[in-house]
Each structure stands twice: as structure tokens, then as C-alpha cells.
Amino acid sequence: MNMVEKILARASGRQSVEPGDVVVAEVDLLIMHDLSGWLTSRVFDKQVGGPVRHPERVAMVFDHHYSPPTEDAADMLKANREWARRNGIQLFDCGNGNIHHTVVRRGLVRPGAIVVGSDSHTPVHGALGAFAAALGNDSHAGTVLPYGKAWFRVPETVRVELVGTPPPGTTARDVALWLVGQIGEGGLIYAAVEFAGPYVKELPFWDRWLFPLLCVDLGAKCSFVEPDEVTEEFVRSLPPGAADRPAHSDGGEAARVLRFDVGGVAPQVACPPTVGNLADVSALAGTPVQYAELGGHAGGRLEDFRAAAEVLQGRRVHPDVRFNVVPSSREVFTEAVREGLVLALHEAGATWFPPSTGSNQAYNMGAMAAGESMISTHARNFPGRNGSAEANMYLAAARTVAASAVTGTITDAGELA
Amino acid sequence: MTTVEGPVLQARGRCWTFGDNIPTDRLVKTKYVVEPMSVIVAHVLEDLNPRFPLEVQPGDIVVAGKHFGQSSGRAIAVKALKATGIGCVVADTFARTFYRNAFEVGLPVLELPGVSELVSDGDVLAVDVAAGTFRNEATGQERTVAPPDAFLLEMLRAGGLIPLAKKRTDLFDPAT
């Protein structure tokens, strides 16, 4: 069995499982943000009720709001707080950070665990060697909260092997975006996607993170990187949490293997209307942007702020651009302060926002008027998610976002004068 | 507007066609997510076809292309479609969160690769999800595919996951 199959077998009390089996498994962690938590709590209270079986295995993170901008939003957050308190659920209130970064940084996600959440990017936790899948509100309200369990169909595994060394200006984010274009949106529906090969093996943890993150765009159920010494070292850096139960593949064959040489990948931009609409940055050069942002599930990492500071060294943000930077967690902000990145980006003209998920769905920030454009490290670019359906969201790596903030048009950092 | 309740796994009605890669964000826009269902359902899919929320009739059938319901896993998107009273959704392929949510909230769906090439907007279709059969009455074209997994059909017949879980304590709460 591979990692995913071993975790599902353990958690469902079976000796073994095979792709296609439907199992009911014990869930180690349910994560919800302020919106999904609100929807799920309402379904639970109205249609299920009763005690939450394992409240210590449930976490709610307010990340779409860092401070409620309206009375309605304040009402929602207040209701969420009361619901969490009443049910004994762990709450990470406004200002803690993006849901996925926060639960990782606080040591709640462990190798070998089963992690579920309504947020569609929940599979990102496969980067730590967890089995992580996005489920709907009714799974959470109907089985995870009352019984601590969820049903799963065991997925077939597709191994994506990446070889080669990209050019110096190309980062892991570019390679990850490029892969969505290569494999295609919905190209691996229902699969467990294992990211492997020498390119992935050499990446540090927070760059590996970007690959399981994108599996939802491929249509996959979950994704993982086989836990190794990089995973172990990262987990040792986290606060102590629940016991690690790492699962390692024992040579089970993948249903399919896809190999890609990343040696020639140029910096990428995912253009509206979908994440799979990729182009080399050079093809978009000169497109005006009014907003640039480092933030979201795929951004707001220390690596992004370092890259931006490097690009902005000796340069300033263009007066026509609002360059907003959003730490993915309080921990990242602390590290950015210590490294001098906060002052460097501030003095170059960027604006720091509180740890959160930033402009994701424009709840607290990031709405655009018709005709406006943003380039960001976010994970999604569907029209209407950021204000007007006539606004444009371009997704790119931090280097490209920072370079575009300098010129006011989409720009390859390597082309800056 | 009436809502079809319970285990109706067959549908016959006019079809509304949509394209590939439709995200849930466009089924139920973010600004409506926290509104009451009566408001949400009045705006479902309006950006892609403004006539849909106004004219859709109970029993109508939604036909889409590839990867229908991608993006956010919000079950509210499926609940909004169900609240229009449509009989079922047929698509070339579904995003897996949409597919899972559909069975969990009791909206019949059938994955039928190539279906988007078989229909024109407004054709009358007959679909039996449990049998995996499809017929376009306007053209006479018929297709049969493997029906959904037996566990998923059991969920649909129960009216969704919440009623199923209450019934199947042997699966979800074996200690009691």
C-alpha cells in the first residue's frame, strides 16, 4: 500500500484497502474557517445536534476576516465564537493567519493523520504526509462532529515525477502553476496525486507546500509528498502536537505515472478566468495592474517576502499600484520582523496587512472595480471572487508580483532595469 | 417554487446547458453565501445565464461540460441547485467536491462523458441516475453508463448523508 492507503486502512480499522473501497475512517483533525465554520455550525445545530464527539480534534480559524468591516460580519464572528465555546472547539480568532498555515504552525497537523475541512485547498496538508481531503458541510455536520468519522472512497494514485532544474528566475510557484497548465484543470479527477522525483525531493518544506495545494485544480481528492528527512526536520520545528504516526509507502504501484522535465519552465502567470489558463510572464508583459498582493494559501510565506525584498532592493513600488503584503501567520510575521523584511518592504512602498488569508474572496480586503487588475500569489482567479466580475486576477510567483508592483505592468523580475 | 424532496432518482424535463470548468463561485457568488436560501436561489448561476434562476422549473435538468462545480467545496452551491427543484445534473465530469456534496445533500447527479455534445439548450431529456441511462427525446440519442457506487445511491435514497448517518449507526457509531 502507499501512504494514503495505509492511513485510510489504519483509520478505518482494516488490514488493507484498495482503490475503489468505501471506508468509514476516524478523523484526526477537522478545520474550518469563519465562513465554512458558520455554514457548518448552522447545519449541525439545525439538522444534527447533540454533543461534538471529539471537540479537541476540531479547529476554527477566522482568516477571511481580520476585523469585521460590517455589523453583519461582526454578528457572524460572534455566533462562531459562541458556537466554538459552547462545543469546546479550539478557536483561532482574527489576526492569527490563513487557516492552513495557522493549523500547521500551531502543530495541529501531524504526519499520518487524517485532516478534513470544507476549504477546497485542505489537501495541502499532504505536504506533511497527512491524508487530507476537502469535504462538504454535510460530512462535517453529519458525521465528523457527532461521530468523529467520515466516509471516503479510496482513491487511485497518480505519481507526478518532476525532474530537471529550472532556470534561476523560475521558482517553485512557477513550476506548480505551469503543472496545472500541463496536466489541465480536472485532469486527475478523484486521484491521489503523489508529487515525487528529484526536483520535489530537493525542495524545502514551504516550497513543497505549493504542489499539494494545486491538486484541487487538477480535480484530485488528495495529494502528498512521501515523508522524508525534509518532512521530519520541519515537523521537529513545530510545537508539540498529537502523536506522529507517519505512514510510508512500501512500493505499491501507482495507477499512472506522469513525468515532467521542469528544466525549461519560465516564470508563469495564470490568467483569468481559470487557474489552468497559463502563459509565460513574457507573453503578458506590459499588462497594467493596479493591485499587487503577497498573500493567500499559496503566498504570505517568508520565502515570498524574501523574494519581494530582493526584487525591491533599490527600487520603489509604482505610484499607481497598491502593493499589499499579508503574512500567512503570526509566526511568519515574527520571522519577517527579525529578518528586517517588514521595514524593507514598508520603505519600498508596500503596505502590511494583518495575518489572514488576505484578498481571498474579498471579505476584508481586495475588492476591485470593473476593469481593474491584480497580480498576486493567491490560489484562485475566477471572475467575481474579488469584487467586479469584470475585474482581472492574475496569479504568479512572489518575484513576478513584486516586479509588477515596481513597473505597474506585468513584468518578469529578470527584465527589470 | 417547489422543492423535490426525497429519493427521486429519475428525471424528465427540459435541459439547461452550461460549459466547462464552472466554479461553485459562479453557482453561488460569495456575496450570497451567507444569505437565506430564498435569496441565494434567486441568483443561482445568474452570471452565466440570467434566465436560469427566473425560469427554471421543477424537474428540469442541468447539463454541463467538464469539471462542473470546481473551486470552493461549498455545499451551499449544491443546495442552491437542489432548491430550484431541478431533477438532476448530468455532466461530462464533475469536480469531486461537487460530486460528493451532491450525494450528501440528496441531489441526483450522473457523470456521462460526452453528454455536453449530445444536447442543445431546451431539449427534453430523460435520465435515470440509478440505472445510468440517458435519453435525449429531441434527438432520440441514448446512452448508458455505469451508475454511481452503491453506497452513494443508498445515500441518495436516504435523502442525503445526514439522514443516512442517523440510520446507519452500524457504520458511523458502531459503539452504540
TrEMBL record, chain A:
Signal peptide: none annotated. One of its GO terms (molecular function) is 3-isopropylmalate dehydratase activity. Pfam families: Aconitase. Residues 27-282, 283-408 form the Aconitase/3-isopropylmalate dehydratase large subunit alpha/beta/alpha domain. The keyword Iron applies. The keyword Chloroplast does not apply. Keywords: Iron, Iron-sulfur, Lyase, Metal-binding. It is an enzyme of class 4 (lyase). Its EC number is 4.2.1.33. Coiled coil: none annotated. InterPro entries: Acnase/IPM_dHydase_lsu_aba_1/3, Acoase/IPM_deHydtase_lsu_aba, Aconitase_4Fe-4S_dom, IPM_dehydratase_rel_enz. This is 3-isopropylmalate dehydratase large subunit.
TrEMBL record, chain B:
Its EC number is 4.2.1.33. InterPro entries: Aconitase/3IPM_dehydase_swvl (IPR015928), AconitaseA/IPMdHydase_ssu_swvl (IPR000573), LeuD (IPR050075), LeuD_type2/HacB/DmdB (IPR011827). It is an enzyme of class 4 (lyase). Pathway: Amino-acid biosynthesis; L-leucine biosynthesis; L-leucine from 3-methyl-2-oxobutanoate: step 2/4. Residues 56-112 form the Aconitase A/isopropylmalate dehydratase small subunit swivel domain. The keyword Mitochondrion does not apply. It catalyses: (2R,3S)-3-isopropylmalate = (2S)-2-isopropylmalate. Keywords: Amino-acid biosynthesis, Branched-chain amino acid biosynthesis, Leucine biosynthesis, Lyase. It holds the Pfam family Aconitase_C. One of its GO terms (molecular function) is 3-isopropylmalate dehydratase activity. PANTHER family: 3-ISOPROPYLMALATE DEHYDRATASE SMALL SUBUNIT 1, 3-ISOPROPYLMALATE DEHYDRATASE SMALL SUBUNIT 2-RELATED-RELATED. Catalyzes the isomerization between 2-isopropylmalate and 3-isopropylmalate, via the formation of 2-isopropylmaleate. Heterodimer of LeuC and LeuD. Belongs to the LeuD family. LeuD type 2 subfamily. HAMAP family: LeuD_type2 (MF_01032). This is 3-isopropylmalate dehydratase small subunit. It comes from Pseudonocardia xinjiangensis.
